[in-house]
Amino acid sequence: MLKKVDVLLVALSSPIQIGIYEDNRLIETIVSDKKSSDVLPILYKQIFDSYCVEKLFYANGPGSFMAIKVAYIFLKSLSILKKKPLFATDAFYFNKNQAIKAIGKLCFVKIGSEITTQKLEIVPEASFTLPDVLDYNEFTQTAAPLYSIGAVA
Fold first, then answer.
1. How many domains does the chain have?
2. Do 36 and 85 contact (CB within 8 A), yes or no?
3. Which range marks the domain in which residue 14 is found?
4. Per-residue model confidence (pLDDT) at position 52
5. pTM over 0.90
6. Do 5 and 52 form a contact (C-beta atoms < 8 A)?
7. Which terminal residue of the chain has fewer beta carbons within 10 Å of its beta carbon, N or C?
8. 113-142 mean pLDDT
């Protein structure tokens, strides 16, 4: 009998990180430097072959717009095909609420529950980590990418 798990994807920048969670606790981490569009189908096939996946989770932005879009389309399709619920939260959950580089010195910042952009003199290096314990209260079933964040020019 396969272990019942939840699967979390953070594909905001390279490397892609996937966390396998049993009873909210991280039991396996998968990391890949390959392109999301190439590697996600392979990795998720291995995951579905090895585990009984209950729920799908991902970081829906801000970050690389294309990476977020690929992750969303892939996971939304998988959610529909496999009949698994899809949940999302913003990237700040995975980097201790640090600024996230947008372009140049412009960064995404989260103040309270609002995500906006600010020009910073020192642009932080994006560093996302999988939590050891998954807090389901931080996620929502409104899983679409954060398109409401203004375009960065």
1. 1
2. no
3. 4-91+129-138
4. 98
5. yes
6. yes
7. N
8. 91
